Amino acid sequence: MGFLLSKSMDANLKNQQEFMLHNSRLQLERQILMQSQMRERQMAMQIAWSREVLKYFGTFFTLATVGLTVGALKRKKPVLLAPIVPFGFILAYQMDSAYGTLIYRMKGEAESIMASEQDRLDLPHGTPTFESIEKTRRARSSLASFLEK
């Protein structure tokens, strides 16, 4: 009788372990999807921000270029056209950021760094472990209780 009860409990335990593994896998998949969606939304906001900045800077660049050109022609001082060059570089960067391939080039460079320069990505003191986090938590909690007294 004890053997049958034990066998039934072992089967039940195995079923529970499989259920827990399945649930933890589902939870991990959901977390990965959520993080991916959050990253996509943040990137979309960043691109939208770049496009908005481009609108304002493009307007400024146009007005500045027209004004500097008119001023240079009226005063016959071509040196007044000098600010157009750095403003042009800024405008080109903003256009590349908002509508160009900058994001793809950055992604490619990031992948290259991850593949060939892994040592640059190491965190100081390595990756946090459960033990290091617990040690810090205990130190802070004992410090907090000490300060309250």
From TrEMBL:
The keyword Oxidoreductase does not apply. InterPro entries: Plg-R(KT) (IPR019319). The chain crosses the membrane at residues 53-73, 79-104. Keywords: Membrane, Receptor, Transmembrane, Transmembrane helix. It comes from the Eukaryota. One of its GO terms (cellular component) is plasma membrane. GO terms for biological process: positive regulation of plasminogen activation. Pfam families: DUF2368. This is Plasminogen receptor (KT).
